[in-house]
Design brief:
single chain, about 80 residues, mainly alpha, about 50% helix
Length: about 80
């Protein structure tokens, strides 16, 4: 008798993609880019010893522009759940 070994081919699972209602548009990219530029300017001002301009730029970047770039939805989008 000869022994045969059978090799089972592993089936790859198809990843399920969920639509979370988030689209990354041009305006989101522009807001994120502007936020990064404002943050860099804030850190440059901080390194030069500015005690008024640096905090304003950093707060504007971290609390305003970066979250706005993540939360902005276009006008044509339906409201979320």
């Amino acid at each position: 008798m000869s022994s045969r070994t059978t090799v089972k081919a592993r089936t790859q699972r198809k990843t399920t993609e969920y639509d979370l209602g988030f689209t990354w548009g041009v305006l989101n990219r522009m807001l994120l880019g502007l936020g990064i530029v404002v943050l860099v300017a804030g850190y440059v001002a901080l390194s030069r010893g500015s005690t008024t301009l640096a905090p304003v730029l950093l707060v504007l970047g971290y609390c305003g522009l970066i979250p706005a770039s993540l939360l902005w939805r276009g006008r044509n989008r339906e409201a979320g759940e």
